[in-house]
Amino acid sequence: MAENSESRRHPRYSVTDISGNVLYTSGIEVLNISVDGAAIETARRLEVNREYTFRISYKDISLSMKGTVVWALLTSRVKKDTQYSVPVYRAGIKFADVLNEKTEALLKFIDDNREKKTGARLGGIRFNIANAKDITVDVPRKYSVKKISLSGMLVEAEYPLSLDDQYDIELFLDGNAMAIVGRVAYCNKTDAHLSQYDIGIEFVGLTESDKELLQHFLGSLEDE
Q1: In the beta sheet, which residues pair with residue 107?
Q2: Can you say whether residue 174 is alpha, beta or left, with left for phi > 0 and alpha for psi between -120 and 50 degrees?
Q3: What CA–CA distance (Å, rounded) separates 168 from 166?
Q4: I need a labelling partner for 55 at 20 to 30 A (CA). Which of 32, 39, 93, 145 fits?
């Protein structure tokens, strides 16, 4: 059913069984890396066979790469400050699109930061990296959609989002995955005892194809 009000630009519809992911940028520790892939450690679990976006920011290098998790396992590490063991996840990543200028940029990063300098050719050889903090991964966290319109949506999640911040978001509609940017309009905790939040998200700069997909989906709700 559509909701209308004078303050809303577009009618808003209540929905069920619609979900997506907010993509959090998380720091990772690179155990070793080559132009083909990497072995990493992270505090969050990565799903085998899922593709993630990895980003390198180093000096004048700003590199974004797609990589698929080919293996993953849960292990532990002793924290230096407490001596307690904490769970960490290790994963093997196969890069998918490191070609041409990306290869050159990645080789420069590896050569500048590898811990053991050798005269060996870098391609295909794995190296330990000193500046592992310079690499991050976009980790998805799930949400469920409660209401949606052409300009935004109300979602339910088990985590808060920062007011007015913008996030990269996946939204799954009719078997399609929309990659959008959303601004957090409000975030309210709905249960004092549980980690449960209602979050209002405004769509920012939808592409024409995503707008058409969303309009078609909303049109199907009007017909019901």
Answers
A1: none
A2: left
A3: 7
A4: 145
Contact assessment for residue 71 and residue 92, using Cβ atoms and an 8 Å cutoff: yes
Q: Which of 137, 168, 198 is the last residue of a domain?
A: 137
Q: What's the domain range around 115?
A: 25-137
The count of structural domains within the chain is: 2
> Do 19 and 143 meet the contact criterion of CB atoms below 8 Å apart?
yes
Residues 164 and 150 in one domain: yes
Task: State which of 120, 137, 154 marks the end of a domain.
Answer: 137
Tokens of 91: 């994963």
Q: How many CB atoms lie under 10 A from the CB of residue 103? A: 14
Pair 64, 53: CB distance under 8 Å? yes
Which tens digits make up the pLDDT trace of 104-146? 677 777 777 676 544 443 445 555 555 555 678 888 889 999 9
**C-alpha distances in Å from residue 9, one per residue of 5, 102, 221:** 8, 42, 18
Are residues 37 and 93 in contact, defined by beta-carbon separation less than 8 angstroms?
Answer: yes
CA–CA separation, 125 and 192 (whole Å): 52
pLDDT higher than threshold 90 for residue 188: yes
In the block, residue with structure tokens 């059913």: 1
Helix (H) or strand (E) holding 211: helix 208-222
Secondary-structure breakdown of the chain: helix, strand, coil percentages, each rounded to the nearest 5: 15, 50, 35
CATH code, 81: 2.40.10.220
